[in-house]
Design goal:
The protein is of the alpha/beta class. The structure holds beta-D-galactopyranose (GAL) and zinc ion.
Length: about 675
């Protein structure tokens, strides 16, 4: 781990090459006045840095870095592998990616590249080496961003010959013999056996159906390929720039690459936060979703993170979203800080006049004259920065963890079973209810140590291994509280249905249940009654028909042919308890269920608040900073424990729209 990024809290994504040089100093001055301490540059500027093969031109960049440096602004350099130039693509058309339909994707957007192609990798390595050598000793450069949003625009890429043979090698390493590959994928079905690894295809669209096991390996391979592609860049930068940090801008729950893996060799994780999304109509309604993005980013390395792109205006390419209202950009940026961002870099400095993103607005409008957004963010930085200096490194602490697994997600994408069942969606249903109650949540990988958490929620543990099973047993036996759901223990690690015992496999012992039958709730909700209540609540999408083998029923079904049988159960095991939820609880049922569990388990809320008000805490050496942020369009109220003293804001307990209050404990 390298580099020093302490003391840096605000930045902006800057593209000096889009503007005349005479303007640069004005930009630097305006940035300095606003409190900007760092810029990210060059992540799409390959052609500007190598206009002709082998002829590097870094002078313009060095000049921009030095000029910004004069104003106290440091630089993070992006490696430009997200935008290979036309000369390269023309010379080697085979670096263009081929999608699953077999179509070559052309030059003209970005990320028109094949990440396995050896020629492309060679050119990337040459570029990164040249950049790293040139800027290693530059006093104003502090770190690097690899590429840009790996996986973005790579959705159904790449199935070219190079990717095919790389996939074959990956499979050979994993399975060693073609017989074990055939067994793992169940290739006896529809005569899909291979006689040799060289026969394996990269999965183009088929006439009908796909092999779920092959598709799972393909998705994992694509993720590993990106991790490997990045690693080559990391190796070069570490060699030449041992004093610089390296990071990458991730995208929350985006699925193309396993972000736990991608972040392992990076110094800290970054996320790009766009509450307005891709042109959202009512961007103030997804605060829980935005919070989840931040919490998962913190989970990638279990440490504080940066926002490398924070929305700073209207989002838009061909069409546009709503204008962020006065105060809204600050509330969003404040939320990032509240969840553990030690620095927030705003995207972008000035709205560009050309290209795809002319309407993805920056801090400055097209004219370059500072306006409403500049003023607002300047005020925000002025207020927030002194506090950020104090709580730098302080982490949110959670008693609840939600397990997140890319493998589970991939398997559920391949076979959602119910058309609307979705792994991330399911996780967010649990998250949202906790969020509404101001209960902080960590997202954890299933290989992590759960023992520090009072409650672990593990939805859709669809693929099961003996090791993971054992982990859940040990956690509960040792006093943990575990919530498992429907579709747990259905398949083995290869995405093949397990047949050695009834669902949910050995975990049935932990939960004190057995599932002999189930119902996929197509176009119907099932009625559910919590024990000792006459009120009818609803479950959706799925109903496990549960036989108790010792578990107590928490709620029974109240409709369908299984009315009167358990829908939700709990079982004491060792020093802990395992809850099993056989359906997707709709909002009211989710509310009752989590109220019951968090109370039984003794999980604490940070305080009471109106629905649109969020409470969150960052903690360091016994000192706590509590944030109350109102995302609503109306005044919002909240109550926090007496130990907290208001240090930012005027009227404790009452927030104007988009206002942020900050407290410390005494
Ligand atoms: C991000 C990306 C930026 C820019 C922005 C707006 O996903 O990293 O380069 O494209 O979105 O579209
Ligand atoms: Zn390829």
């Amino acid at each position: 781990m390298a580099g020093n990024w302490k003391g840096i809290h605000f930045g902006t994504d800057y593209y000096p090459e889009h503007w005349p040089r005479e303007r640069w100093e004005t930009d630097a001055k305006l940035m300095q006045e606003m409190g900007i301490q760092v810029v990210r540059m060059a992540e799409f500027s390959w052609h500007k840095m190598e206009p002709v093969e082998g002829e590097f031109d870094f002078d313009w960049l060095e000049e921009a870095i030095a000029l910004l440096g004069k104003y106290g602004i440091k630089t993070i350099l992006g490696t430009p592998s997200a935008a290979p130039p036309a000369w390269l693509v023309n010379k080697y058309p085979e670096i263009l990616p081929i999608d699953r339909q077999g179509r070559v994707r052309g030059f003209g957007g970005r990320h028109h590249d094949c990440q396995s192609n050896p020629t492309y990798r060679k050119y990337v390595a040459t570029m990164v080496t040249a950049m790293a050598k040139r800027f290693a000793e530059n006093p104003d450069v502090i770190g690097w961003q690899t590429d840009n949003e790996f996986g973005n625009s790579h959705g159904d890429l790449c199935t070219c010959d190079s990717c095919r043979s790389t996939f074959q090698k990956w499979l050979k390493k994993k399975y060693e013999t073609v017989e074990s590959l055939n067994a793992a994928w169940g290739n006896h079905f529809w005569s899909q056996e291979y006689n040799d690894f060289s026969e394996v295809f990269a999965p183009r669209i088929t006439v009908t159906g796909e092999n779920p096991s092959a598709m799972l390996d393909w998705k994992c391979f694509c993720s590993d390929l990106i991790v490997d592609f990045q690693q080559k860049q990391i190796d070069i930068i570490r060699e030449y720039c041992p004093n610089h940090f390296i990071t990458h801008n991730c995208m929350g729950f985006a699925d193309k690459v396993n972000y736990f893996d991608l972040n392992r060799e990076l110094d800290f994780a970054c996320h790009d936060q766009y509450p307005g999304g891709f042109y959202a109509i009512m961007p103030h309604e997804n605060n829980y979703d935005m919070a989840a993005n931040l919490d998962i980013t913190r989970g990638f390395k279990k440490q504080n993170f940066w926002i490398m792109e924070q929305q700073s205006g209207i989002t838009g390419w061909e069409i546009m979203g709503r204008a962020p209202r006065p105060g809204q950009l600050s509330a969003w940026a404040g939320q990032s800080v509240a969840h553990g961002a030690d620095a927030v870099v705003f995207f972008r400095w000035r709205t560009c006049t050309a290209g795809t993103e002319q309407y993805w607005h920056g801090i400055l409008p097209h004219s370059g004259n500072p306006g409403r957004r500049y003023q607002e963010l300047k005020d925000f930085i002025g207020k927030m920065k002194p506090h950020m200096e104090q709580f730098e490194g302080a982490m949110p602490k959670s008693e609840v963890a939600i397990v997140f697994s890319y493998r589970q997600e991939y398997a559920m994408q391949i076979q959602p079973q119910h058309p609307d069942l979705n792994y991330v969606g399911q996780i967010k249903k649990y998250y949202k209810e906790l969020y509404k109650n101001n209960i902080p949540v960590d997202f954890v990988e299933d290989t992590e140590d759960f023992s520090g958490y009072k409650l672990v929620i593990a939805p859709l543990q669809y693929l099961m291994t003996p090791e993971l099973e054992q982990k859940y047993f040990d956690y509960v036996a040792g006093g943990g509280h575990l919530l498992l759901t429907m579709r747990t223990g259905v398949k083995d690690a290869n995405n093949i249905c397990m047949s050695d015992r009834e669902l949910p496999g050995r975990l049935g012992e932990l939960c004190g249940i057995e599932i002999l039958d189930y119902d996929c709730l197509r176009d119907v909700d099932v009625q559910v009654r919590m024990n000792e209540s006459e009120e009818t609540l609803l479950g959706a999408k799925w109903a496990d028909i549960i036989t108790s083998k010792g578990a107590k029923s928490v709620a029974d079904y109240a409709s369908e042919f299984y009315a009167g049988t358990p829908c939700i159960t709990k079982n004491v095991y060792g020093d802990g308890k395992a809850y099993y939820v056989g359906t997707e609880p709709k909002e009211e049922l989710m509310k009752r269920l989590l109220a019951l569990i968090t109370e039984e388990v003794g999980v604490k809320s940070l305080g009471w608040s109106d629905e649109e008000v969020e409470l969150s805490v960052r903690e360091k050496e016994g000192k706590k900073w509590l944030f109350a942020i109102n995302f609503g369009l109306e005044e919002g109220c909240y109550q926090v424990p007496k130990e907290y003293k208001l240090i930012l804001g005027s009227e404790a307990g009452v927030l104007k729209p988009f206002e942020i209050h900050l407290y410390v404990n005494e």
